[in-house]
């Protein structure tokens, strides 16, 4: 099916949607993005994603392409036009184009480029991948120092996924100065003796919208949480582990660098958090 996508004020068939070859998103990765999930045809945590987008834009002195209310309307219209019940909405804002290539930012009157498209993913909430759990490997984290800004500089995370694939795993956790930062496209956690351990927020990791919700729900469920640096060896000795992201919710991790965690199947805390998160998200979806 040909999707209807959104580009700079227009709803178009994906085959007719275009962006300039001089767009700074294309030439310099001078762009930020958000991925929002859809369940039951409704948006999960739209507000969280909209607030983080605003922060990413501010950090890069990039203009907002439109208001939050307009963004909500575009998201909803794309869900409707494409008949999405379960899936994702990808949004990208770039600094636009002034018709040439120049490292210097273009003048203030250059309009940002706004692109959104849907990804239909029936069965996202009930995914077989989550029932099986993910195997992760560890790789060095060689990304830039502002990972709190959700930029489209995703070459290294893509390479990380390919390294994982080549090693027969599903994903990679990145390590800097001996400590795990995060997954290629998710935040990372392990559980030992009932305590959930995850890296604290800083410029070193993306401030996950799912992370925030899951930590709040874990606290409400009286689970113990420690936000501190941790090593991959700690994760290998864990009872269980998991990741969080808008695209996979809470994903159990069953193997780290070839070492099976617990009995090698998704752990009870990850499974419980996934259930609670999905239930709460569906209830709050707009
Ligand atoms: N990735 N860390 C990184 C590096 C990410 O790319 C993501 C999200 C997360 C989780 O953030 P959130 O819970 O807000 O989705 C953490 C998205 C889903 C992606 O690139 O597709």
UniProtKB/TrEMBL annotation:
The keyword Cytoplasm does not apply. Signal peptide: none annotated. It is an enzyme of class 2 (transferase). GO terms for molecular function: L-isoleucine-2-oxoglutarate transaminase activity; L-leucine-2-oxoglutarate transaminase activity; L-valine-2-oxoglutarate transaminase activity. It comes from the Bacteria. Its EC number is 2.6.1.42. Keywords: Amino-acid biosynthesis, Aminotransferase, Branched-chain amino acid biosynthesis, Pyridoxal phosphate, Transferase. Pathway: Amino-acid biosynthesis; L-leucine biosynthesis; L-leucine from 3-methyl-2-oxobutanoate: step 4/4; Amino-acid biosynthesis; L-valine biosynthesis; L-valine from pyruvate: step 4/4; Amino-acid biosynthesis; L-isoleucine biosynthesis; L-isoleucine from 2-oxobutanoate: step 4/4. InterPro entries: Aminotrans_IV, Aminotrans_IV_CS, Aminotransferase-like, BCAT-like_C, BCAT-like_N, Class-IV_PLP-Dep_Aminotrnsfr. It catalyses: L-leucine + 2-oxoglutarate = 4-methyl-2-oxopentanoate + L-glutamate; L-isoleucine + 2-oxoglutarate = (S)-3-methyl-2-oxopentanoate + L-glutamate; L-valine + 2-oxoglutarate = 3-methyl-2-oxobutanoate + L-glutamate. Belongs to the class-IV pyridoxal-phosphate-dependent aminotransferase family. This is Probable branched-chain-amino-acid aminotransferase. The lineage of its organism: Bacteria, Pseudomonadati, Pseudomonadota, Alphaproteobacteria, Rhodobacterales. The gene is dat.
């Amino acid at each position: 099916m040909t999707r209807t996508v959104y580009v700079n004020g227009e709803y178009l068939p994906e085959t007719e949607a275009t962006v300039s070859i001089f767009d700074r998103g294309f030439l310099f990765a001078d762009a930020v993005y958000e991925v929002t999930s859809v369940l039951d045809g409704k948006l999960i945590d739209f507000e969280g994603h909209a607030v983080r987008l605003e922060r990413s834009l501010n950090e890069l002195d990039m203009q907002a392409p439109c208001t939050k209310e307009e963004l909500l309307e575009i998201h909803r219209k794309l869900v409707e036009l494409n008949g999405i019940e379960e899936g994702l909405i990808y949004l990208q804002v770039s600094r636009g184009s002034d018709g040439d290539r120049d490292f210097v930012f273009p003048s203030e009157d250059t309009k940002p480029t706004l692109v959104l498209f849907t990804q239909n993913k029936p069965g996202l909430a009930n995914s077989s991948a989550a029932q099986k759990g993910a195997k992760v490997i560890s790789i060095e984290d060689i990304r830039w120092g502002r990972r709190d800004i959700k930029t489209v500089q995703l070459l290294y995370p893509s390479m990380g996924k390919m390294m994982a694939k080549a090693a027969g795993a599903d994903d990679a956790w990145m390590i800097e100065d001996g400590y795990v930062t995060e997954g290629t496209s998710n935040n990372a956690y392990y559980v030992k003796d009932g305590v959930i351990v995850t890296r604290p927020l800083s410029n070193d990791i993306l401030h996950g919208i799912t992370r925030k919700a899951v930590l709040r729900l874990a606290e409400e469920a009286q689970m113990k949480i420690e936000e501190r640096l941790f090593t991959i060896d700690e994760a290998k000795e864990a009872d269980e582990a998991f990741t969080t992201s808008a695209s996979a919710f809470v994903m159990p991790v069953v193997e780290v660098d070839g070492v099976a965690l617990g009995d090698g199947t998704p752990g009870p805390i990850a499974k419980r958090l996934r259930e609670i998160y999905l239930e709460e998200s569906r209830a709050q979806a707009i």
